[in-house]
Amino acid sequence: xxxxxxxxxxxxxxxxxxxxxxxxxxxxxxxxxxxxxxxxxxxxxxxxxxxxxxxxxxxxxxxxxxxxxxxxxxxxxxxxxxxxxxxxxxxxxxxxxxxxxxxxxxxxxxxxxxxxxxxxxxxxxxxxxxxxxxxxxxxxxxxxxxxxxxxxxxxxxxxxxxxxxxxxxxxxxxxxxxxxxxxxxxxxxxxxxxxxxxxxxxxxxxxxxxxxxxxxxxxxxxxxxxxxxxxxxxxxxxxxxxxxxxxxxxxxxxxxxxxxxxxxxxxxxxxxxxxxxxxxxxxxxxxxxxxxxxxxxxxxxxxxxxxxxxxxxxxxxxxxxxxxxxxxxxxxxxxxxxxxxxxxxxxxxxxxxxxxxxxxxxxxxxxxxxxxxxxxxxxxxxxxxxxxxxxxxxxxxxxxxxxxxxxxxxxxxxxxxxxxxxxxxxxxxxxxxxxxxxxxxxxxxxxxxxxxxxxxxxxxxxxxxxxxxxxxxxxxxxxxxxxxxxxxxxxxxxxxxxxxxxxxxxxxxxxxxxxxxxxxxxxxxxxxxxxxxxxxxxxxxxxxxxxxxxxxxxxxxxxxxxxxxxxxxxxxxxxxxxxxxxxxxxxxxxxxxxxxxxxxxxxx
Length: 604
Fold this sequence. Notes:
By secondary structure, the protein is α/β, with parallel strands linked by helices.
């Protein structure tokens, strides 16, 4: 029997026949879908004429005595390829001897029409499939003015994979499987192509295991170990900690609920079960902070020796996923070749740690996002969520996630207090020898986010008013922030505030807010901006305050040069105190202290 696993096929290389089973729907693609596929092919041809264009995975089923493979999923795409073949005269593709490459079980009229089209018989057919006829006319029109090299490209570079369902499937199973398939006809994503290539590198006895593992890990927005309904926090914690101690895929999934284990396995490798789950899980509207593509790159980065982790910007380019993996799995020029077995085991290990110890988003809407954390621990948990989210929005993820995941892998079990302390120490140490400038034009936005964290942590001290304190307590770190002058560079109207240019661009006169709010308020006076902030305090505007530094500014009654200096000095003191009073941070503290401003009098 032909071994279909992991091979890439094109119309030029396909060596098996397919039939459309009775339970499959009829060919339904309209002109728009056919044009879309052809346009995508043309666009890819123009950009990279030597590279394949992937149209997806064909899922097949074959009974022992049958010669042809039943096409369970992918018939719309393969039928279009067949119709393109009738227009371009792909004789060796369309037929093997007298046998059609694509036939129809119990739909003889459709099959007769296709045979009629292939044979170029000018006689009117006894039956005409309207959908096929429309598609053929559309293909002829599209290809009419295209050169021969593009037509050759379609034949040689339109690429697909074939997966084969096990022989133990029955007709009911196949119907259920088909109902779950997506007939969108889109090209494969890079990580789906990578999956096939990676599995091709694995030993055959590992294929089923690694397929299941990959499928489970790829669902980034659903935790591998989920909390059951009414499951106590301590029990959920214990279940995670037990898994952290295991080293193999089998042992990990022995400790995961059996029903969930079945759900994560590939339909290629298991029989469908009609048994209803005995347990239900807590449904959470959560999103991981990384896409699966980003997570794959992160795990590969962690699998490299420290000295081999170079050029991170290039490495973490998600558009070069396939190229990066090719470099470390099939190319000896890197000096380090990653083991497939180590990678797959690391993929699962780091994913479980990631689920439990790394913050998750509870909304895809940037305006309403908040963060959650599965890590069970009352003490410091909220602080840990806030600190992780601060680093997440201010720092490229791989920069902080790499050392944190390494520490988690080594420790396996840590408290929320330990996790917070580790991240703070790591964050502080990386800033040693930094050249810190807090002036407009040279300041790194990180310093605004860091300041906001410590203002949030000390909210009871800096925000005395209960309403203001409540606003500060609900502060959420967000990305897409721009730097705003409190007293603007250009006022819309005359103002009594007069400042020199240096003071205007000083840290005391700056805050970081959303780009949208900056656009609408950038030239407004202090009083107008203060009124906007107070609308948050009095709950006239929903959401959360965009900057705690800005919230502190609008506690001033007015805004003049001494107010700017006073605020700058207070905020720098917060930053100074955020570093431990140890010798290694002496220069950072002195650097910050040198940027405090002299207040000539005490009038505000």
